[in-house]
Specification:
Pfam families: Aminotran_1_2. By secondary structure, this protein is α/β, with parallel strands linked by helices. Helix content is about 40%, strand content about 15%. Helix 4 crosses helix 8. Bound molecules: 4'-deoxy-4'-aminopyridoxal-5'-phosphate.
Amino acid sequence: MQTQGNNMDPWYGLYAARTAGLSASEVRALFAVASRPEVVSLAGGMPFVSAIPKDLLTGAVERTVRERGATALQYGSGQGMPALREQILEVMALEGIHAGVDDIVVTTGSQHALELVAKLFLDPGDVVLAEGPSYVTAITVFKSFQAEVVHSAMDDQGLQPEALRETITRVRAAGKKIKFLYTIPSFHNPMGVTLPWERRMEILEIARQNDILVLEDNPYGLLYFDQAPPHAMRSIEADGVIYLGTFSKTLAPGFRVGWAVAPHAIREKLILANEAAVLSPSSFSQTVISEYLGSADWKGQIDTFRGVYRERRDAMLSALADQLPTFSWTVPTGGFYVWLRLPDHLDSKAMLPRAVKELVAYTPGTAFYADGSGRNAMRLSFCYPTPDFIREGIRRLAIVINGELAL
Ligand code: PMP
């Protein structure tokens, strides 16, 4: 069966059908362009890891090699290091989650947890409900298991409960099987918005009534700028929620350490799937992180990140107000992203080459939908460039957009 690629690829006819969804995303292509130093990239979601003082980590790395090398350099448990899992409990308690050390499965970033959950639950033709828009690489994972991603509408307070009810009814009326709802309730990627407490309760109730599992992805919850967001959905409901956390945003993504918290039966299968995929998550990374959490002021470091990102968010919002005063955008109270809405007739994907010519990059809204929606929106990331670069980037973006409007 011919599924993917083109005739230049000698293996074209051999790929599995599931690879059809693995076409290079807009985001990937952008990374190449936007990494040129003269381009202000508002496209990627790279954490500003230079904000971590080097000696906070060098001690942890050195102790890992010198004192804990026998285990840190060895294969480990498919569930992850018990000592690190204990510390993860402390991290999650900050978001109201109370779990046991055995409830946690350490994964290779939360990205791999997404892959494992998809592998456990998705057969071809199954439906995954997701916010519209949703995290691009989660959509890619679900599609790679030949699931259909059905988006449900959001507003500036996240997923709309009423729309979710209607989406479930519509999907079921079409005879399709819904496996889970994938949601990013706090500082959403890509919209930047946060689901209020009452909606969290309501959405969990809808999921319960409809026997739908909730997959709660929470990489940004601790990166709030003023007030903490409402507690995680997993803090309300333990049985019907798989919760994903990560050290990628509160420490550094290079470690590739995240985790899943899942109800007992699912957790056992997750551990087996983790072993089948990687034998054990990196012992070295887990040990360094465990040393770091045990010795450094990690809460203070998260505070430092909050300050850095708050300043960048402020720079972006004030630049947008100066440069594009008649447009609308979301106002994130944490995380990395602003969602900018364009007039209906503008197409952010078609505009991108002109933006790159003006030396600014962003992610077109279409990247965050499985169904081609999102043309008249874009995601702007404020996590990586300095405030001055952000202001310059928005100035260049306004030139491009105003040029389009003048056509
Ligand atoms: N989920 C969301 C919503 C994300 O934004 C990201 C990273 N951009 C991930 C998961 C993956 O994070 P990691 O694998 O680094 O933990």
